User: What shape does this take?
Amino acid sequence: MDGTANSGRLWPWLALAALVLLADQLSKQIILATYQLGDSTYVTGFFNVVRVHNTGAAFSFLAGAGGWQRWFFTAVGVGAAVFIVWMLRSHSGQKLFGFALACILGGALGNVIDRLWHGYVVDWLDFHWPFLAGMFPGGHFPSFNLADVGISVGAAALILDEILRVRRNRR
Assistant: This one.
């Protein structure tokens, strides 16, 4: 297949990644304009909207590392984005795989933009349940954002894609 046909199939995945990125950045701008750091709004018995700044990675990993982590996680995000675009170009015809990579790409770039603009990632979704109290303070799962949702949905889709691929190959 020539590069033109392959790149034509790449655009829908890049559009999906852009949609995830746009939703993430728009939601974060609303939070930044509406909330001060640490503010919280009760929504339901298990969900609050909050404003949290995360200088680390998932679950605030390395959040207190002194600043170098900003550039490390930015480089990891940019490297992942380049690799994902390369993978999308190579496998753009695989629908579930492409969906997964596009979701991860949009999410990764959303958090990279935060790190570059603010020096931290803006998190605002706060879910909490009493059964989580043994693992998380007050039962509050670590706050996250729509970029993280995109990454998580993409990761789940990658796992599903691999399970389906293995099943197909066993037949």
Q: What stands out?
A: The beta strands are 40-44, 47-54, 121-127. The radius of gyration is 18 Å. The mean pLDDT is 89. The chain is about 60% helix and 10% strand.
